[in-house]
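2.7 Reproducibility. Because tokenized structures are sensitive to small changes in the input, we list the exact sequence used for Cytochrome c oxidase subunit 2, including any N-terminal residues retained from the expression construct. No trimming or masking was applied before prediction.
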Amino acid sequence: MSEPSQISLNNALSPMMEEFLYFNDYAMTMLLMIWLLVMTTLLTISTTKLYDISSNNANHLEFMWTLLPIMVLMFIALPSMRTLYLLEDQNPPHLTIKTLGHQWYWSYEYSDYENLSFDSYMIKEQDLTNGAPRLLEVDNRMAIPMKSTVRLLVSAEDVLHSWTLPTLGIKTDAVPGRLNQLIFTTMRPGVFYGQCSEICGTNHSFMPITAESMPMKQFENWITTLMN
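Resulting structure tokens (single pass, no recycling of outputs):
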């Protein structure tokens, strides 16, 4: 969860989010180098009297200022293509969860287990326990086993919603009559928060997403408790 005065992205919970953070740092480094080069060139031109008239029609100069942008684009495009490939190259899932967006709450169905489904509503501010985040905590969290591949099927019952969890690096629209698929793996235990990212009506700001990653043994106990 983001903290006050935080200027960096959230810590990664999944391998794909780690790839996104790496690519973000890499791209920002490239942009910083370009900015420094441009500023240095402008400062040099504006503060020196030296001028080489022979460079006005130099073919090699035109070749360089065409080649350099192409090289920069290639240096950015290749890691981006690698990240896109890894995003689609996923292992077969160990668990399937179906989530359905409503106005204005989420419902979850663990389709690998019989009759295991529940609704997840935001907890009102006056009912929060000490330390619980405002507008983000829910009465029923979505539980996921740690270090297991999970498939999330996302849809909606009424209007467009968007299921988003920044620490996992996943976001997809919940569209009525259509199933969208997300595949992810969590690498550490914890409670992680997100929100609906599609304006869906009056209470759009009041349908948070809360996921709890836990070890497999704890997840099995959680399943057993719900089914009894």
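Residues 95-227 form a domain with the Immunoglobulin-like fold (CATH 2.60.40.420).
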